[in-house]
Amino acid sequence: MSRQQAEHGVVLTGYFSSSEARPAAGVSAADEAESPVPSHKTCQYLQSRAKHARGKSPCSHCGSQDSLDELSLDDYWKEVENIHQSGAGDAEHQEEVQLKVTDEGEREEAWLAEVGLATLIDGSASDPEDTFALLSTLTRTQAAAVEKRVETLKQTLRKKNKQHQIPDVRDIFKPPVAQAAKLEVEVLPARRTENVEGEVGSSGPVGSICENGAGAPGASGAVTPDSEINVEISFSEQALLYREGSKGTEARARSDVDDKLPNFKVSRDRTGMTKVGDLADQDMKKVHRLALIEMTALFDTAGIDLKPQKALKLKVKESGLFGVPLPTLLEQDQKRLPGTKVPLILQRLISHIESEGLATEGLLRIPGVATRVKAVCLELEAKFYDGLFAWETLKQHDAASVLKLFIRELPYPLLSVEYLNAFTSVLKLPTKKQQLQTLNLLVLLLPTSSRSTLKALLEFFRRVMDHKEQNKMTLNNIAVVMAPNIFMFKGFRSKVSEQQEFSMATGMAHIVRLLIRYQDLLWTIPKFIMNQVRKQNMENQKKMSKDRAMKKLLKKMAYDREKSEKLEKNAAEECAQGLIRIQAPQFSKISMAVQLTDELRVADIVARFVKQESALLGKKEDFCLYEVGGNINERCLDEEAYMKNVIELNPSAEWVIKPVPH
Fold first, then answer.
1. Which residues of 152-181 are buried (b: 16+ CB within 10 A; e: fewer)?
2. What is the model's pTM?
3. One-character DSSP codes across 430-462
4. Domain harbouring 332, CATH code
5. Range of the domain at 54
6. What is the arithmetic mean of pLDDT over 78-97?
7. Same structural domain for residues 510 and 396?
8. CA-CA distance, 300 to 108, in Å (whole number)?
9. Is CB count within 10 Å lower at the N or C end of the chain?
């Protein structure tokens, strides 16, 4: 085993199964004849893998599908060859994406601007008070990441003799601010842990961040179990504790790097989880900034130097279905169907494949006939939006090939140019837990169009896996086949050598494997980031109250004051009686007082309103209880959250039932 393989815990093995050596059921000899023929290079690779596998027992591939030892790359290289030989979508000779690694200094300046700290470069760029609100929430490792970028930018500008008024890092994090920059995570009396696959258990209290910024795993000092993802303490703080506890012991540092995918659980307390899509845009902007700082701190802690890339200006199609940027395509679709988050063509392809049966053997793996796939793409471009395309004539393997072509023909990669290097660097992190935590942050950083499209794809892949006994498409099979389609955007192969491509193959497949397996966990917003968002909002409210107090006092009318005092008095009386006022402006009964108990869940409150309304009006919409105001702009509450604990988290909020947007 090479040193590089040992570091990643990867041993590449391969074989030809008898089922892959013959055409799948339903594929004619004529279709097989038209399928792309592997090149000499690919044939040599496949022959070498087959030779290596001859000494293996036929049973060696049976059992768990979670093993990298079983992650055969045969299908990966077949898929790469299919991509090259298909030629579909090349008729217009679309310009390739040209990537540029940003220069040092330029990189730091762009990073500080993206995280909302541009005021550290130019005092007039943003509100200093907003900067302070953000800095005041940072943990030790997050503050170190900011300091590092500021110091690097300062040194770079000195070399270039540029006169920028960049403050010294010691002025940015003065002792009072540094003291405030220790995120305090409240210790909850009890919490639950939920398996990403639905199993529920219990655990003891979780610790808070200590005075020095480090996370305290618990009263006993024992670390969180390896199978549990702690979302209440900064991931980079946890990584720092791991690194410090592993000094001088390489074996311990790599102890959990093996070829299995653990059945990870996510820590979950009584205030509920927050998923992507649950927050208002104002708070999601804060989440993005904090996630970028946290991801950078996590890579810094692991000693990994990320070199972000950016795409040079590119001429792209401004209409159509294939080769159109996702934001442009969605804007085009939203004119026809407002609120569309996933391209209509992708939704329709997935719907067609599922309606025709997910049990088709070799689905996604066996390519469609190249000539038919090209013809289908041209016909879709001409007829899709007019509703004239004859979907009943589209065969399963052709439909799957069109779906894959749609993904790889995007002018910019689905995982974005900005964060593609970060995705490919995930496996450099020492533990699977840190890899998963980083993927969680990267999902939060993706543009909304990419994140929504990726989610739709991953959910589709999981439904394909549900029929693996019939279609022979396991987690590994899907990951291996889809990896080149997701990562190899236009221009990718011209930028890497054959040797680099070979070494990246396993990593790409493994990242897709993690995305599919842990998708439920990856689309949640960690509790520690939510706490930081709440703290920022509170700091901003303090500033607003100072600026507007006099104006409000002068403009406030006696009627408004009397009305406000009456509402406050009623709220106080209800609170004293253990009641909470729930607003439901779209219901016939627009308000209701609900008795609070320790075990009253959000789902119980929503069910009470919906049951009453459905009986009156026959409505069957999906509703959610929203937390509005206080230290959050707006949050759709987790149905499993306990109302009493949520109120303690944000006592100044209003509670409103509204339909869930689709």
1. bbbebbeeeeeeeebeebeebbeeeebebb
2. 0.79
3. SSHHHHHHHHHHHHHHS-HHHHHHHHHHHHHHH
4. 1.10.555.10
5. 3-94+311-522
6. 63
7. yes
8. 14
9. C
